[in-house]
Amino acid sequence: MKTVNTEFTTKENLEEFLELYNIQEGSNILLQIFTGVCSQIYIKELVTTIRKLLPSVFIIGATTDGEILDTSVLEHSTVLSFTLFETTTIQTYYTTQTSSQDAALDLIAQIDKPNEAKVAISFTGNLNINADLFLEQFNIKMPQLTVAGGLAGDYSKFKNTYVFTSDNLENNFAVMAVLYNPNLTVHTLYHFGWEVIGREFIVTKAVGNRVYSIDNQTPVELYGKYLGHTICRQLPKTGIEFPLIVQRDGKAVARAVIDKKEDDSLVFAGNIYEGERVTFGYGNIKHIIANEYYRALDNIPIESIFVYSCMARKRLLGESIALELTALTNITSISGFFTYGEFYSDQKSLKKTLLNETMTMLVLSENSESQYIKFKDEDCRLSNNTQTVEALSHLVSQVTQELNELNRNLEKRVTEEIEKNKLKDQQLLHNARLARMGEMISMIAHQWRQPLSIISSLGSTINIKATLGTLQNENAVEISNKIIDNILHLSTTIDDFRDFFKPDKVKKQTSFSKILDDVFNIIKVSIINKNIQIHQELEDYSEFINYENELKQVVLNLLKNAEDVIVDKKVVDGYIKIKTYANENNIYLEISDNGGGVDIEIINRIFEPYFSTKNQKSGTGLGLYMSKVIVEEHCNGKLDVYNSDEGAVFRLQLER
Amino acid sequence: MRDIVDFTKKMHLLYVEDNEDTIDATMLYLDEFFDAITVAKNGKEGVEKFQKHTIDMIISDINMPIMDGLEMAEQIKGVNPHIPIIFFSAHNEESFIQRANALNIEGYLYKPLHHHQFIALLEEIMHKMSDKK
To answer: Is residue A185 in a domain?
Structure first.
């Protein structure tokens, strides 16, 4: 087999060309037409002219976004690619179905010998195509078939693209040439080279290949925000140069914009799924034209090479596009076109996928003895004239990388700080717990001091009486009874404390007077010892259902604070006043002192955690905070503070 | 031991303490040493009873309402610098004890009562008083 290519100018020139390469009617010829003239009239005339010269030639054609002829990139021209086969049978098919899935099924149904079908070159001409859906049918029905080709173009107008065969020139959704030859050697190759830039976004709403929102903004807003309004205004055209890149199965897949809708949603050449993470892609010239990938073609038989390359590469590379192809033109004449999307079949699995932004190649040989090539190093080397762009490209990618690094460090720092604060919080809670234990022990000490003193005196009495010989039986019984009484008192005190600090599991019936009795049981001695008076004005004795022990702790905390302030400020005739009263809905307990009140500047802050007016040793700053949390979050009540003429008033409000 | 009791039996003790239960229990003990004991419930009452009776020795709590033991001791020592005064108070009132040092106090007993400490203190006071004689 061999492929020869030419640019169509006139019928006469074509005749000369056919003669020169000895292309005759009756041979097994596939003609691929890549035309930059997006006119149905032109296409009709062109095909008619050719069929006069070669009536039985198999034609498939597509309009383009640029034509490839060896190392030249042509525009608005027509490239004819003749492939003369020896042992391969050719058939062409078209479909006028209007949905991606139906079109694919229609084409597949026409394949007459599915077992012998080796390669399909397909072009699609409907801009509403969902190419993922289209190719999926081939994956299901024809897993052994290699599919190449791509989406026709119209020079970035996105209005009308056409595909055609010799049998039908109009209204085609897709066309396809199938090569029947089990012994055909087929190689596929794709080159991407686009790089991700900037941060990741999450697709927040998408249906099929239409994306409605990304990071909860419209895709048009996103493009405008990150790529600027010039790029944004020119959508969908510019959306091919800046595709969205999705990572799927560890492979970067680009999705180019093919349409912009009224509602600022964008249509992409292939599916993008909700929840997928996408990044903007940009062409890194160095990667695009680093021709290392030619190595994949080392030592394989090559007779024909067809190139289907994304139009974005042409836009980005301009004249340099030829660099991608130079080394290959030494092997054979090359032809192809710039597409709106490329069909690629994996070399090994033959899984067919839609690619964007890539250059795909279909390499064929009928004869395994045909020429082999070993690429030279200079074939793969970067030429000088792209160094500036390369440098800028490098700058962008380096800066992006550094920013990402900074970002990651920042996130790490934030996480570390949060951890540190957590530790600090734990430490403070721990300190608060220790402080409360300290308070408790000090209260127990107050409670125990007298009984212990009494027991000791009674023991000493027995001792002295025995020593002096004055101990009588009735003395011994009387004194030992007193000792036992006091020991029982100690034991009761311990029980009181244990119950007091036991957390409540369920609410129970209680009242403010009961709570006050229990609290005074353990704190009264300490208050009285400091010569502080306690005034009680209890008007309400009603019962309610709530967490009794938690409320006791709140009351204890408020009494302790009142005691502390009176002692700290050395108030003469210090007193703590306790009032209960009620209205229709609520009952109230007020605890006030004559310690001078809370400084007006901090009165709003005293319930904040870690806020303390006491010195570092005695105050944890958690007492009032925890009291407020207990009352307002557990007990469904309110705890607030205001100043009276004499001092602070803490008011605890509960529902009846 | 006998000597001490013989020494103390002749004395009139002023015992100052605000807690009733402690008074009850301690009196049982002190009765073995002293035949004459006057009880006062706070410093002010202590000063009054000191003036009213002929007191030979004072045992007093420190922390009490109305007038504490230190102020009482100050006033009494002002009248009679040689009268033996023993403070009988809790351990945690050491800050008071520092102030007590300045008053030339005979000694302190920590609550709860330590029988042997008390005997030792009485013995010390006995020797001091017989030296003076």
So the answer is: yes
φ/ψ of B95, rounded to 5, equals -65, -35
Residue pair A336/A307 in contact by the 8 Å Cβ criterion: yes
Q: Is the dihedral of CA A462, A464, A465, A469 positive or negative?
A: positive
Classify residue A427: in a domain, yes or no: no
Contact B25 A458 (CB under 8 A): yes
ipTM of the complex: 0.84
In a domain, A208, yes or no: yes
Is the CB of B115 less than 8 angstroms away from the CB of A449? Answer: no
Residue of A nearest to B119 (CA): A464
Beta bridge partners of A120: A147, A178
The reported pTM is: 0.52
* pLDDT tens-digit readout, A38-49: 999 999 999 999
Residues A467, B29: C-beta atoms closer than 8 Å: no
CA distance A462 to chain B (A): 8
Cβ within 8 Å, pair A454-B21: yes
* Interchain CB distance below 8 Å, A459 and B115: yes
The verdict on residue A460 lying in a domain is no
Within 8 A of A453 by CB-CB distance, chain B residues are 22, 25-26, 90, 111-113
What domain range includes position A69?
2-190+298-371
Residue in A453, A474, A489 to test binding to B, most B beta-carbons within 10 Å: A453
Residue A307: C-alpha distances to residues A187, A297, A656 (Å): 12, 14, 84
- B45: containing domain: 2-132
Residue A353 has φ and ψ, to the nearest 5°, of: -135, 160
